[in-house]
TrEMBL record:
Its EC number(s): 2.7.10.2
Signal peptide per UniProt: none
Protein name: non-specific protein-tyrosine kinase
Catalytic activity entry: L-tyrosyl-[protein] + ATP = O-phospho-L-tyrosyl-[protein] + ADP + H(+)
One MF annotation (Gene Ontology) recorded for this entry: identical protein binding
The AAA domain, residue ranges: 53-180
GO CC annotation: plasma membrane
Domain of life: Bacteria
Family assignment from sequence similarity: Belongs to the CpsD/CapB family.
Gene source species: Alicyclobacillus macrosporangiidus
Length: 235
């Protein structure tokens, strides 16, 4: 069963005992190792190009991290194609964009999800100038405030090679989780995107190889791989 538009909720909520959910728990553990060493609290999820699984990874890792007892805030900083509100079926009337224009406070925008310990800040209405808003002092203050209030802040962003937003966000976050779609990601584009992140001094903590079939697992890339695959459930 693939995730469908009719049932957008994270698979770790819909099918917590599935092998895929187990894979996301492995991703969580790997991220915990990196963050424990580096003390990282604010983590962003990105990839080279669209539709590689950024949002799926961010939402599922946020769910399993909250289930492990952390107080987690999942922020939708994809102000172009926001999806977090859709995955959790919550309102998107207020969110990051309304905080950044000072219309709402962080507290007014946080939504408690159905998962204990997991809180959401949806994107809010799509603004005309996302890059400018994410470059603002308000965004820096917003993230600082989030990091003060939560154990882990997980941030969903657009792809690195499409717009500058992810690079801008990466400068304000402690670590980057880079998602690769094993079925279609172009190796050169992935390298280009990681190089762009490193050029702005982002700390790439690891790579999630999404859509890997169990039997096709391979090791040996320059970065540590985290694994998550829903392919086994596809029908
Ligand atoms: N491992 C997986 N198995 C099956 N379907 C998946 C998997 N990962 C993601 N998908 C599906 O692929 C589509 C794109 O995934 P997702 O929205 O997570 O990607 P994205 O990188 O956030 O995309 P965008 O660049 O548009 O923000 C979604 O329909 C999602 O349900
Ligand atoms: Mg997305």
């Amino acid at each position: 069963m693939a995730l469908s538009n009719r049932n957008p909720q994270p698979i770790t909520i819909a099918q917590p005992k599935s092998p895929v959910s187990e894979a996301y728990r492995n991703v969580r553990t790997n991220i915990q190792f990196s963050t424990a060493v580096n003390g990282a609290r604010t983590l962003m999820f990105t990839s080279s190009v669209p539709e590689e699984g950024k949002t799926s990874t961010a939402t599922n890792v946020a769910v399993v991290s909250a289930q492990a007892g952390k107080r987690v805030l999942l922020v939708d900083a994809d102000l172009r194609k926001p999806q977090v509100h859709h995955r959790f079926q919550v309102s998107n009337l207020d969110g990051l964009s309304t905080v950044l224009i000072r219309e709402r406070s962080l507290e007014e925008c946080v939504i408690a999800s159905r998962v204990p310990n997991l809180f959401l800040v949806p994107s809010g209405p799509i603004p005309p100038n996302p890059s400018e808003m994410l470059s603002s002092r308000m965004f820096v203050d917003f993230l600082q405030h989030c990091a003060d209030e939560y154990d882990l802040v997980m941030i969903d962003t657009p792809p690195v090679l499409s717009v500058t937003d992810a690079l801008i966000v990466s400068r304000q976050t402690d670590g980057v989780v880079f998602v690769v779609n094993a079925l279609k990601t172009n190796r050169n584009l992935a390298r280009q995107a990681v190089a762009a992140l490193e050029q702005v001094n982002a700390r790439v903590l690891g790579v999630v190889l999404n859509r890997v079939q169990q039997r096709d697992r391979q090791y040996g890339y320059a970065y540590s791989y985290y694994y998550a695959s829903e392919e086994k459930l596809s029908m």
